[in-house]
Every structure is written in structure tokens, then in C-alpha cells.
């Protein structure tokens, strides 16, 4: 495990309030109808109603990351055990089966960075085994910032899922630091090397305007070059859905997102879908 002890960044005064209304209380949440995954069921391996992440993205719907990145054994005491993960998943999957509410996708995400879960391989074993019993046609995936992909056990675990969705919002470290406010030492060169060790991946990229803007021509050019080096099987391009924690942040209109997606495709041949 990397040394993850950090000093939390100061939240600038104009970024005032964070929203905790979207934090999850348990291991399973949803399903929700989503544009990307259809009827999507979420799995939260992180503590209940608290956010743990290696990033502090300006648009994060979990609100600001208020706690240091966990790294000492005592930081993980309130993570759900694999036994509890199994119990909660079996119980909720059973209810959904009875209701006839069949998920199209089961996505490991939740209250922050799911790959921080200390027994990720075990948890993914459980998720796959229960998925096979209850909803064998549901696709499985994980949303990650990629900061833990330098660890072989994390790559092995996420490679067992159907999809690995890795966040890349900027193609330069300077801009990435502004958009994602990383809480650990981590650069794009590392991410590119680690992602190439995965079976495959989907890149997810959120574009914003306003006080932080990653849509300028040069910035999109850097992003295109970064995505081209990674060669994901496709890219999901999107903007804000709801009010972000950073005030003065604006949604990017669909036409601009389509232009970014088209530029990626024209310059690299990589398929990008706008959501
Ligand atoms: S990586 Fe995801 S959970 Fe973490 S701060 Fe960014 S958007 Fe939020």
C-alpha cells in the first residue's frame, strides 16, 4: 500500500458548501435508470455516509473529501467486512428478484474511491458469485480514479469485472490538479502505465466550464493525446448533471461535448459517446 497520509487541501471560500445528500448508507444502492448503464445497481464498499477518496474532484456529487486518504489499519475499521458485503448483497438482490426489478449493470462505486477497499479481490469474488446466482445477465463494472492501479492485487481484482471505467478529465498534470484536486502523489505518466496493464478500460471524462474549465482547445488537445496513448476501448464524455460542490462551475452544453468527442474520434479513431 502506498503511504497515503495527507494534509487535506484547504477548500477555498468561494467553494463554500459541500453536499452530503448523495452519500450511501449501505453496501447496495439503487437500482437507478442511468444513461450509461441502463438499470444500474450500485455497490458501495466504503464506510456508510462518509466519503473516502484519493481525489477531491470539483464536481463530485459525494461532496468534498473531508477526510485524509485512509492508509493505516485503524482507518479501515468501519469498512464493511466481506461477510457483511455478502449479506447485504444477497439480501437486496433477493428482494429485487422477487420484485422483478432486474439490473442491467452492477457498478462498484459508492462513497468515493472503491479500490481503497482493503480486501477488494475478496469483495469482487463475492459480487461476481452473487451476480451469477441472481442476475447472470447483468454486466459488472467499477468506476475508479485509477490511483490504486499501481498495486497488482487491485489490477487483478478489477480485471475480473466486465468493465473498468477510469477517470481522465485532463491530459496535463497541471489541469488535472485543478479539476480533480488529488490528495496523493500521483501523475498521468503513472496512470497511463498502470492502465495499460489492465485487460482493457473505458475512459470517463467530465468536462466543466466556469471557474475551472477543461474545454479550451489546448486542454482538449492534451486530453486527446493522453487518451490516444492509453487506447481505451471507448470513452464516455459528459458534464454536470446536478449542482456540483464547487460553486461557479458550469455545465458544458451538448454541442460542445459532441465536438470534443468528434475531435477525439477524428484524431485517434477512438469511439467516444456523449452522455
Ligand atoms: S474520483 Fe469520483 S468519488 Fe472521488 S472525488 Fe472524484 S468524482 Fe468524487
List keywords for this structure.
10 strands, two-stranded antiparallel sheet, 32% helix, globular, disordered N terminus, binds iron/sulfur cluster, eight-stranded mixed beta sheet, alpha/beta, 275 residues
| Average of pLDDT | 92
* Small molecules in complex: iron/sulfur cluster
Shape: globular
Strand content: 15-25%
CATH superfamily: Aldolase class I
Q: State the low-pLDDT regions, or none.
A: 1-8, 13-20
Strand order of the largest sheet: 1-2-3-4-5-6-8-10
CATH structural architecture: Alpha-Beta Barrel
- Whole-angstrom Rg: 18 Å
Query: Structural class of the helices, strands and pairings?
Result: alpha/beta
The tally of domains stands at 1
Name of the CATH first level: Alpha Beta
Work out the number of β strands: 10
Walk me through what this model shows.
The chain is of the alpha/beta class. Helices cover 32% and strands 17% of the residues. The protein is built from 7 helices and 10 strands. Strand 1 and strand 2 form a beta hairpin. Bound molecules: iron/sulfur cluster (SF4). Iron/sulfur cluster binds at residues 53, 55-57, 60, 62, 65, 112-113, 145, 167.
